Amino acid sequence: MNVLIVVVTLFVLTAFAAQSGYEGNKVYRLKPTGKKQLEMLANLRNEKNLDFWTPLRRDEHPVDVMVNFKEEKWLTDLLKKNNITYDTLIDDVDSAVLEEHERQIFFPPTKQGRISFIKYHRHEEINAYLSRLAKDYPNLVSIQNIGKSYEGRDLDVIQISTNSSAGKPVIFIDAGIHAREWIAPAVALYAINQLVENKDNANLLEKVDWNILPVLNPDGYEYTHSTLLQRFWRKTRSQGNKCIGADANRNFDFHWAEIGSSSDECDDTYHGKHAFSEIEAIALSNYISQNKNRIKLYLTLHSFGQLILYPWGYTSELPRDNEELLSLGEAVAESIKNVSGTNYIVGSSTNILYAAAGGSDDWAKGVAGVELSYTIELPGGGLLGFDLPTWKILGVAKETWEGLKTFCKHISEKFN
Ligand SMILES: *[C@@H]1O[C@H](CO)[C@@H](O)[C@H](O)[C@H]1NC(C)=O
Ligand SMILES: *[C@@H]1O[C@H](CO)[C@@H](O)[C@H](O)[C@H]1NC(C)=O
Ligand SMILES: *[C@@H]1O[C@H](CO)[C@@H](O)[C@H](O)[C@H]1NC(C)=O
Ligand SMILES: [Zn+2]
């Protein structure tokens, strides 16, 4: 009997492994020191066989990189040759994915139109929640469809406003432009939940409106959920010649393709055939353009790295209003730290990380003129980093929410 169970289990595990893109993959935590080692790694960022799970920082912070088993020796030889020390963080990515999947399916389906913060929701559940809020709170909530994804999923923006004809300043938030960063949509959902369903937060709606798009890249997001062994998909799902998808956060039409992206469509950081080749990036940019006079804060949620970043991503030059961007970012970081001790680093993208052009935050500021524009890299956690264990979702959502309140305070004061 026991033998049978073992055999069946092995069979199931083998069946999973057999379909896997991650079989034998490992994740290393690299610990570069000195400019030379950092530059060497910066040049590897768009390397096909390496997947940088955390952005490479300039301050010698460790960086987590997934490597295909076929390239493992190549990588370790290279690291040794360059004297870069490293640890093995995940020895077998496949079984880590499987474990995470088991935790995820452990929770029963949520009732139509409801959400929780004990699991990661599917795109349909998220949009059903938005619709339910619009129905239950008609004086507060409306849904604007801003287009469809490549595969035809609705890009729905929830507009939360106590008086939509008053023309109040707007805080716009999106999440999930990178498919695998599951905590980002969850945090956006928590903000929606707090703004609409928690009356104690009514003051946050007095002077501003909130418009939130919780999943900007729903095709990719669904792909990481439904295709068990594509958990680390990052791009959209548009059809290319050889490979699928582009990195929508390298696809915006501002210094597009100048630096920090790839022209190989099979790479994770592929910037697309041309600027705005991706329909999701077009939909977002149209929406922001149409509302650019009212949007006073643009916020895009990513994971992971505990970073609050602002433009520019394409150059190390600082924006004119660096002082305001920095001090607001630091105030937000402080209010997050106050909740739970979580530390964020704050600064302009290119000064914290290595330059990468074509991001939505650069475009929002540089083209649409939304001066206060930020990317938040939320915390990682658990073995996989991209997926905090489900029991940690609420903690991250709550601490980030305190940061959002600080943003709101600044916008409310500055624009009234
Ligand atoms: C690595 O370290 C060794 C011994 O300290 C040194 O001889 C070598 O030049 C270093 N290599 C690089 C690429 O820095
Ligand atoms: C909504 O805003 C408009 C325009 O400012 C104003 O005339 C109206 O009185 C407001 N409605 C409410 C209910 O506050
Ligand atoms: C930190 O928390 C304390 C008490 O909870 C509060 O009085 C203080 O204003 C908070 N500081 C920030 C920056 O949020
Ligand atoms: Zn991201």
Automatic annotation (TrEMBL):
Give all residue intervals belonging to the Peptidase M14 domain: 119-411
Q: Where is the active site?
A: E377
| TM regions (residue ranges) | none
Q: What keywords were assigned to this record?
A: Carboxypeptidase, Disulfide bond, Hydrolase, Metal-binding, Metalloprotease, Protease, Signal, Zinc
What residue range is the signal peptide? 1-17
Q: Which GO terms describe its cellular component?
A: extracellular space
Q: Source organism's superkingdom?
A: Eukaryota
Per its UniProt record, the required cofactor names are: Zn(2+)
Entry-linked Pfam families: Peptidase_M14, Propep_M14
Give the record's GO biological process terms. Answer: proteolysis
GO MF annotation: an example: metallocarboxypeptidase activity
Cross-referenced CDD domains, in alphabetical order?
Answer: M14_CP_A-B_like
Family under the similarity heading: Belongs to the peptidase M14 family.
- How is this protein named in the record? Zinc carboxypeptidase A 1
Q: Which species?
A: Ignelater luminosus (Cucubano)
